[in-house]
């Protein structure tokens, strides 16, 4: 464990040095190809950093922050696009907005958007209790079928991801002195796949992939396909890139060649989401009741996740490593509390 913590420190120091280079050197270069060329060493560095880590949590979080978010944000930065343009006022803000899933929450009273409201404290408390109960089941060797365990583990992954990102958002909001948008917006309340992926699930990802992938692909394909079909081409490209990025994160975790199941998961969702939007635009069918569409979305996401997204996790015992690391943290906290209360 000491070696892993040492490697984690090395990873974050390397990231800080890399971001400092981007802030003090690359930002002074003209936008476009020259700045992009100057960022290539950083892209490669961020691709390699997660390989230094073996812990599932440390590796996955570092891959998400650096390999995914930072690389895509720096790609946009090369062409003077948000969220890193205009250039933040100091290095610490540049580092935070580069590497963390945060975005300044611009409140607009005339806006009807519901996905920028902070999570209720009561909802957060309930989610924390549910997560604690799941860990309690793990610690007591809860006897369950494979399907029951898979459902439990899917809920575990969602709750843990949200709780971690809520903590990161709260900490950075305090340190930076600004209001930040939430990363999740109750995805279990989604009434369509479009609602789920664009307005409720991991909101920083579509906020980055939209200008980095969707818009450029749409712009390039529009002369060939027309504006209507180019929109769907951009959407499918976005889901494809998301799938490939998840494959890379899976590689960091299991260190085995990809099986492309995760890519198929995202391509399937891209196709079905595109079909859903096309049907809604034709207005041939009346919109179903929110309860019906919500259940349909939840069922589709859970079934396809169990079919394509999680099999690699189960086959390679990643779930066991996740659970063991969570229980280890609980044991450490209990030990520290016992020392403190003595």
TrEMBL record:
The keyword Acyltransferase applies. InterPro entries: Wax_synthase, Wax_synthase_dom, Wax_synthase_Magnoliopsida. It is a multi-pass membrane protein. Residues 181-267 form the Wax synthase domain. Keywords: Acyltransferase, Lipid metabolism, Membrane, Transferase, Transmembrane, Transmembrane helix. Coiled coil: none annotated. It is found in: Membrane. The keyword Transmembrane helix applies. The chain crosses the membrane at residues 7-26, 32-53, 119-138, 150-172, 229-253, 260-279, 291-310. Belongs to the wax synthase family. This is Probable long-chain-alcohol O-fatty-acyltransferase 2 isoform X1. It comes from Camelina sativa (False flax). The lineage of its organism: Eukaryota, Viridiplantae, Streptophyta, Embryophyta, Tracheophyta. The gene is LOC104731729.
């Amino acid at each position: 464990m000491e070696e892993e913590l040492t490697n984690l420190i090395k990873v974050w120091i390397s990231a800080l040095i890399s971001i400092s280079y981007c802030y003090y050197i690359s930002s002074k270069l003209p936008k476009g190809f020259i700045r992009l060329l100057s960022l290539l060493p950083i892209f490669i560095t961020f691709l390699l950093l997660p390989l230094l880590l073996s812990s599932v949590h440390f590796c996955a979080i570092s891959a998400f922050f650096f390999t995914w978010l930072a690389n895509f944000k720096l790609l946009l930065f090369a062409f003077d696009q948000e969220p890193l343009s205009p250039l933040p006022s100091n290095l610490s803000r540049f580092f935070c907005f580069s590497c963390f899933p945060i975005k300044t929450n611009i409140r607009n009273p005339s806006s009807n958007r519901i996905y920028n409201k902070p999570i209720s404290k009561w909802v957060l408390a309930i989610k924390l209790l549910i997560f604690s109960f799941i860990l309690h089941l793990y610690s007591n060797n809860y006897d369950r079928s494979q399907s029951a365990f898979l459902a439990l583990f899917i809920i575990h992954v969602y709750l843990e991801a949200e709780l971690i990102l809520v903590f990161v958002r709260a900490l950075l909001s305090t340190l930076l002195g600004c209001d930040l948008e939430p990363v999740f917006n109750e995805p279990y309340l989604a009434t369509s796949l479009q609602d789920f992926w664009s307005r409720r699930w991991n909101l920083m990802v579509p906020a980055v992939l939209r200008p980095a992938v969707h818009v450029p692909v749409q712009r390039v394909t529009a002369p060939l396909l027309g504006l209507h079909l180019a929109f769907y081409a951009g959407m499918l490209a976005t889901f494809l890139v998301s799938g490939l990025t998840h494959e890379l994160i899976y590689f960091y975790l299991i260190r085995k060649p990809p099986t492309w199941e995760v890519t198929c998961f995202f391509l399937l969702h891209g196709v079905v989401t595109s079909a859903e939007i096309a049907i809604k635009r034709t207005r041939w069918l009346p919109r179903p009741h929110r309860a019906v569409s919500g259940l349909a979305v939840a069922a589709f996401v859970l079934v396809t996740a169990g079919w394509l997204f999680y099999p690699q996790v189960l086959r390679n015992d990643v779930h066991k490593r996740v659970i063991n690391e969570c229980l280890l943290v609980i044991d450490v906290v209990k030990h520290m509390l016992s020392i403190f209360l003595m």
